[in-house]
Every structure is written in C-alpha cells, then in structure tokens.
Amino acid sequence: MAFSLEELQRQFLAVQESTPVQALSESACVDIVMKLMKRKHFSLSTTLNGKEFVTPEYLTQEIRSYLVQHNGRVNVVEMATSLGMNPDTVTSKTEELVRKSKHLQLIGVDLISSFYFNTIAQEIAELLEERGQLGLGELCQKYSLPADVLRHEIQTRHGTSIQGELRENNTLTTPDFFRRVECVVRGSCLAACHPLSLHTLADLFNLPSDSVCTAATDLLRRGEISGKISSGIFTPSRYLDHQTD
C-alpha cells in the first residue's frame, strides 16, 4: 500500500511527539555510558556529583572561559572546584592546553595567560615611572611569582611596555633615574678628600644604597672616578697617595 509524502510526514511527526512507554532510569543511562567509555567508544569526563558527562572540547571551553573571567590567572585546583570537576581531570587538561599554546604557562598550581603578564607589565611600567627604580624581589612578592619567571617577562617587554633596564643587582631602573644616581655619585666621589661611605651618601640624597654602590663600581671601572671601593667605602686616590707619602 503506497503512502503519499504528506502522509509519511504526518506519521513521522506523530512518532516524534509520542511518549515512550518505557524509559531507562538515570542510573541505567549512567551505567551504559560508563561501559561505553571503558570500551573506548568515546572520551568523557564526569562531574564530581556524577550526574553529568563532559566532553574534552567542552572542558577546554570551560577552562578558557574561566581564565578570561579571572583576568588571565587562576588556581587550577580552585578552578576545578568551581567547575564541579575532579582536580586531576582539570589539571591534566590544563597541562595539555599549556603544551599546545605559547600564550599559556602553568606556574606552580596557577594557570597564567599572556594577558595577565601584559596587565602586570603595564602596572610595573607605571610604578617604575613614578619611583624610578624597583627591586625584583619586591615585584616577586607583590605578584607571587618566581624571580626567573618575572625576570623573563620583564626582559621580554624591555623597550616596549617597560621602559627600564633590569640591572645585575636585580633592580629595574629607568635611564633617567640611573643617570641621576651616577651624577650624584660622580660629583661626590670627585670632590671627596677622605674615605666616603656610599651608604651614607645614599641616605644623604635619599637614594637606594645598592644603586649608589652599583653606580660607584661602574664609574670606577670606566675610569670616571679614581680610587678603590671596599666594604661600601670609596677611598679616593688622592687620599691613598697622601697615606703612602
């Protein structure tokens, strides 16, 4: 018996809208899915309450969204709790994302994006402009980051977002600030007739002691001042010559 196209469409719609006589229980559905997962038919992760299954793609999307919502830095364990997922599952997926993206880093238990580092670079630049010098240790404490990581990020942005130089003594200084320090040290050392405490000089001009000592060492090496430095004391050549006589 032949049916018209309209009749076939009507019957198909009726089947779609009909209520099934029997339905699988939630536990039975979960059991079936778990068995299929064990047989490697597909890959899913379960939520902590065991009531939902999450695809790898969906978990990736959730992690990226969560990272954006928290300005590019999140604690992976805390993120897992917020997403209602097993911490090991989220950590594993996070490590995979880091391997595939040059814009993500896993530092300790924190997932950090380039956006976060760009943000703090701007903060550092503004603070440096205001103060002229910043200590790397101070910045590490402020942002809870290892020194090697922060040093790399600062050096990467040197001359662009951060207009300062990270010196050997782990201080970040602007060119103007260090020129000012050198000017003070040069004038004081050239005028000195007796041993001069560099720490006292720093206090007198309200300058960081380490910057004053670094400037004195650089000036001495370049031959712009004459004498010797020992234990933070600059002794001018004229004094040394007088002692010899």
From TrEMBL:
- GO cellular component annotations, sorted alphabetically? endoplasmic reticulum membrane
Domain of life here? Eukaryota
Database matches in InterPro entries: Ufl1, Ufl1_N
Q: Where does the E3 UFM1-protein ligase 1-like N-terminal domain start and stop, copy by copy?
A: 5-244
Report the record's Gene Ontology biological process terms.
Answer: protein K69-linked ufmylation; regulation of proteasomal ubiquitin-dependent protein catabolic process; response to endoplasmic reticulum stress
- A single GO molecular function term of this UniProt record: UFM1 ligase activity
Q: Does the keyword Ligase apply?
A: yes
**Sorted UniProt keywords:** Ligase
**What name does this protein carry?**
E3 ufm1-protein ligase
Species whose genome carries this gene:
Cystoisospora suis
